């Protein structure tokens, strides 16, 4: 007979009732009005909503200039190009992020140089940046992962000493702050993403932001076929430089504008729900909770935990234990998953060093070492983490957060049983729901 203490996967009741967790994003009559008005308009390519979205997002974030794009990845590539990073130049980037954080560097024939992460923050270890700088280094690309800002004081001090550009990958960090100042306003330029999982969702899309007029013009040429005039101006259709087509469209921008009206409320809800989870889960043996250091304003795009094998006295394969824990949590109705299974240097595109054929762009510079053994902290994180997005998102509130915390308590109360069973289970166990598996860093 089922009992409340029995795991759902073994016949017990779910800790999180069916239907309790609301879907993301919430759609209102405001969204419908903006989108229907766009449909009724005359320009469904780069239309009036695109221009308005740029102005409104720049005002919300505190930037002078913004360019709306078809993805965060596009905005990242534009950032790399605008900062003058080109053939054979090196750009320092974190060893753990979505692939776009580093492939955007390759898009402009530059070479990513990876730096290991700090375990507590999951961001680039700023103490290791300087050792990665060489005469070929052109920029530092920081990733504000999961809604937590990098220590920008430390990054900018290094950049000033070495005369380097600073690019912010803020694709997951809308509204995150360091010393009260929003991300995307610290570096030379920044990229945001608005894909399905982001705190500002327009389905797909992104935004390039900067305070520098020259960088704005350089980014615009990449954004629109190498032209110097925007689609809202009289165009001569002349390609003045190698360009791409990274423009947004009016329908997507209309959706983004409507969602932007509620973005501050969404972020506040994420912070409140994360505070409930932090309070409810503090002290759970074997669970390493996400950190919010002093001077940082975390937005909890993703609430990422790690299995603490040492605290459990567990010497087996921690990734297998993590996977088994996720299976149990998903059975309880808590939608958790692995956000990124691989550290970036281990990915084939970097191991092969042949992005454009004939060894390009690595053939343009001296050898760069991508041995995964050089990034042990990122690897430790990758093997032990699991996270969630939707339960923290509006309109979900404290009731939902407490239910999810209850599911985590329930599963961790049975962790001894899971540890006893895990070594007998196959390595390819299900890795949890798509709740965070699809949540990318740049999109």
Note down, in words, how this protein is organized.
A hairpin with a 2-residue loop joins strand 6 and strand 7. 35% of the residues lie in helices and 12% in strands. It has a domain of 233 residues: 3-Layer(aba) Sandwich (Aspartate Aminotransferase, domain 2), CATH 3.40.640. The C terminus is likely disordered.
CATH class of one domain reads: Alpha Beta
Q: Based on the coordinates given, report the CATH architecture of one domain.
A: 3-Layer(aba) Sandwich
Instruction: Spell out the helices and strands N to C.
Output: HHEHEHEEHEEEEEHHHEEEHHHHEHHH
Give the overall pLDDT as a whole number.
93
Structural class: alpha/beta
* Name of the CATH superfamily of one domain: Type I PLP-dependent aspartate aminotransferase-like (Major domain)
Report how far the terminal alpha carbons are from each other: 46 Å
Number of DSSP E strands: 13
Question: How much beta, percentage-wise?
Answer: 5-15%
**What would you call the shape?**
globular
Low-confidence spans: pLDDT under 50, at least 5 residues? 429-441
Quote the CATH topology of one domain. Aspartate Aminotransferase, domain 2
Largest beta sheet: what is the strand line-up? 1-9-8-5-4-2-3
Radius of gyration: 22 Å
- Our count of helices gives 15
Q: Roughly how much helix do the residues carry, as a percent range?
A: 25-40%
Main β sheet profile: 7 strands, mixed
